[in-house]
Amino acid sequence: MRYYTSIIYEKSKNLDRLVNELFEYVRTKNPKLTLHKEKINMTRLLQQLAAQYIPELKANRMEARLSLPGREVWLYADAEKLVRVYENIINNALRYGADGKWLDIRLQEDEKGICIEIKNYGKPIPKHSLPYVFERFYRADEARTEEGSGLGLAIAKNIVELHQGEIWVKSDESGTAFFTLFERENIDER
């Protein structure tokens, strides 16, 4: 009896998580969602995210490699929502890129704006799946047996677009890289 009770409990937790993610997806789809923008030190935010994921990275036999400017890079944005973007991308990398050992996090700033790249070296996303990875409930064929709602990257895309940013993915045999770009007008230089 305990066995069945634990199965029901786990299924109910998964359903609760799915409902919460679906609610968040719908909320982030609303263009009138209020963003609580503030000046964010993106260099520090990415360092903290990498540190936060050390236990999960170790459990997946992965290590984070950071490539950050030697100075602070600022962005005017909603910190809580941006953290969610990068958590979703990193969780995706942990789930599907663990056999690649490395998780690279790179921050670059140029005349166009701030570009953040998060790359893993696991199996590539099939070319036919690339146009759909940011759609809700979409998961590449090989990933369907893995746990996940198929909402994380759709939520990330919605949040980036609420900040007037861009998000895209490149994937081939050398790895899978997710990019976010925030244009110059959202950058606050100190």
From TrEMBL:
CDD domains: HATPase. InterPro entries: HATPase_C_sf, HATPase_dom, His_kinase_dom, HssS/ArlS-like, Sig_transdc_His_kin-like_C. Residues 1-186 form the Histidine kinase domain. Signal peptide: none annotated. It is a multi-pass membrane protein. One of its GO terms (cellular component) is plasma membrane. Its EC number is 2.7.13.3. It catalyses: ATP + protein L-histidine = ADP + protein N-phospho-L-histidine. It is found in: Cell membrane. Keywords: ATP-binding, Cell membrane, Kinase, Membrane, Nucleotide-binding, Phosphoprotein, Transferase, Transmembrane, Transmembrane helix, Two-component regulatory system. One of its GO terms (molecular function) is phosphorelay sensor kinase activity. It is an enzyme of class 2 (transferase). Its main location: membrane. SMART domains: HATPase_c. This is histidine kinase.
